[in-house]
Design brief:
16 helices; globular; isopentenyl-diphosphate delta-isomerase activity; single chain; magnesium; cytoplasm; NADPH binding; oxidoreductase activity
Length: 353
């Protein structure tokens, strides 16, 4: 298989077999204020929300993970079928391989998601670095590939810097993002890949007309760490050391969510989100939805039912958090009281200077 496709297979294998998790997302520092007298029935609490006019049963996003290698088709099929069954949102991994390779099996690893989820909210995915090579018509091709409801443009420049074969020219990306946001037929989401988005960058993206920001902060899967493992496998010692050095780099997800939500009205919180309580906390901080990636990977390997079971667990945890904060709806949860403690408080205080 070509290099781009093999890289996708490498990533999944490393995530499944190596320690590529980091701590420090900051959710443990955010304590929602308990409501001892909620005056509601937990099972009647409304978890529905709207994303770009599409009503979701819960503010949950199966984050962009995979696609681009025939081995990933089964995973994407299970994830998409579960998104269809539970009415949550889902993104695919980078569609670069589908756009650049003339291979039906590779293409199927993407197109399978709309086949399995004809009604779900699905978004596509291209890299900001690739926008320097692609025109808007190329991005439209990615939209058409999965009949996408939105398109994510991912920012992964730390990952690229660690990759021996990475794209390390970030010049002109903001202008390219602005052009796509202005001309594309569907809404545009700009997402990080594990290192967070600052208030200043979120402001630049809002000014560029981006429809949503997915902060993907520090505190979950470390792509720098993943690339360190790939570099070790080919004896690229310098790149391996670089990956380990920057393993914990980034803006904690809780901080990034607060900062981005202060300047953009549609923020998705991801990066170390591991429970429905984390999703509830992110929404109280200003997010519209919470996204998870790695926690869905093992269930996807088991099949659709296992993915559905995880989503149902997340919804129960979310609904319980809403119950004990006195939040009868997602809009009420966005106004829930909370306290900020520990490292996250210190980080925010330093950022205010």
């Amino acid at each position: 298989m070509p290099e781009t496709s093999n890289r996708k297979d490498d990533h999944i294998r490393i995530i499944e077999t190596e320690d590529v998790e980091t701590t420090g997302a900051g959710f443990a520092d955010i304590e929602l204020v308990h409501e001892a007298l909620p005056e509601s029935h937990r099972d009647e609490i409304e978890t529905t929300t709207t994303l770009f006019g599409h009503e979701l049963a819960a503010p949950i996003v199966i984050e962009s993970m995979t696609g681009g290698h025939p081995n990933t088709t089964k995973l994407n099929r299970a994830l998409a079928a579960a998104a269809q069954r539970t009415n949550v949102a889902m993104g695919v991994g980078s569609q670069r391989a589908g756009l650049e390779l003339d291979d039906g099996d590779v293409l199927e690893s993407y197109t399978v998601v709309r086949d399995a989820a004809p009604d779900a909210f699905l978004y596509g995915n291209v890299g900001a670095a690739q926008l320097l090579e692609y025109d808007v018509d190329d991005v439209e091709t990615a939209v058409e590939m999965i009949d996408a409801d939105a398109m994510a443009i991912h920012l992964n420049f730390l990952q690229e810097a660690v990759q021996p074969e990475g794209d390390i020219d970030a010049r002109g990306c903001l202008a390219a993002i602005e052009r796509v946001a202005d001309e594309l037929s569907v809404p545009v989401i700009v997402k990080e890949t594990g290192n967070g988005i600052s208030r200043e960058t979120a402001t630049r993206l809002a000014d560029a007309g981006v429809d949503a920001v997915d902060v993907a902060g520090q505190g979950g899967t470390t792509w720098s760490g993943i690339e360190a493992h790939r570099a070790a496998a080919v004896d690229a010692d310098r790149q391996e050391r670089l990956g380990h050095l920057f393993r914990d780099w980034g803006i904690p997800t809780a901080v990034s969510t607060l900062e981005a939500a202060a300047v953009h009205d549609c923020v998705i919180a991801s990066g170390g989100v591991r429970s429905g309580l984390d999703i509830a906390t992110a929404i109280a901080l200003g997010a519209r939805a919470g996204g998870l990636a790695k926690p869905f990977l093992a269930p996807a390997g088991q099949g659709t039912d296992a993915v559905v079971e995880l989503i149902e667990t997340l919804v129960l945890e979310l609904r319980t958090a809403m119950f004990v904060t006195g939040s009868a709806s997602i809009s009420e949860l966005r106004g829930a009281e909370y306290a900020v403690l520990g490292r996250t408080k210190e980080y925010l205080e330093q950022r205010q200077h």
